Amino acid sequence: MLLRKSASFELAERLRSAEGAAIGDVFAFLSGLYFRGKLEYARRFAPGSAYVITSCTGLVAPEAPVRHADLVRFAGVPIATGEARYTRPLARDARRLGRSLSEDAQIVLLGSIATDKYCGVLLDIFGGRLMFPGDFVGRGDMSRGGLLLRAARSGTELDYVAVADTPRHGPRPARLDPATRVRPAR
């Protein structure tokens, strides 16, 4: 829908423009609740210091512009540990980021922690500094997205645990309380 030439909604038009659209907005549109949650949470608790992991350009700021051709290029590269077109730029940017931070800075991963597609590369570089919200264990994408949106909107930052020291798989936690459901902004 977003990539259709006939799409006339604002985000699609921005994506086709010379200026492009913010990658955070585009990924939030494409991914739905989970990425919206990650983006809103990062903007609330880490403004100006959040990055989006891409399939072939490494880490980019959520405000970085992308165009139609960029999305087509991204779609051609699998996010997989054995895919050098993915892992090399991610490792390059993670090392650069690591050098720019203090030794005791924590790096919080809001992406999937169940597989090594993100954790593998980042853990090799950041080691014990790589953290994730402990409440992610056992949750699926939609539940993590809802959890992040609730936390961002309530102003309550989640507790983080080290990726290296914490089991990343576990029993499914209780469902989020429907009374705290996040309603779309109007």
Structure in words:
The chain has 186 residues and is mainly alpha-helical. It has one domain (10-171). It contains 7 helices and 7 strands. It has helices spanning 10-16, 23-31, 33-45, 68-75, 84-100, 116-126, 141-154; strands spanning 21-22, 52-53, 59-60, 65-66, 107-108, 130-133, 160-162. It has a 3-stranded mixed sheet with strand order 5-6-7. Strands 1-4 form a two-stranded antiparallel sheet. It has a two-stranded antiparallel ribbon with strand order 2-3. Helix 3 runs parallel beside helix 7. It is globular, with a radius of gyration of 17 Å. The relative contact order is 0.13. The model has no long low-confidence stretch (mean pLDDT 88).
How would the blueprint of this fold be written?
Layout: H1 10-16, E1 21-22, H2 23-31, H3 33-45, E2 52-53, E3 59-60, E4 65-66, H4 68-75, H5 84-100, E5 107-108, H6 116-126, E6 130-133, H7 141-154, E7 160-162
Parallel strand pairs: 5-6
Antiparallel strand pairs: 1-4, 2-3, 6-7
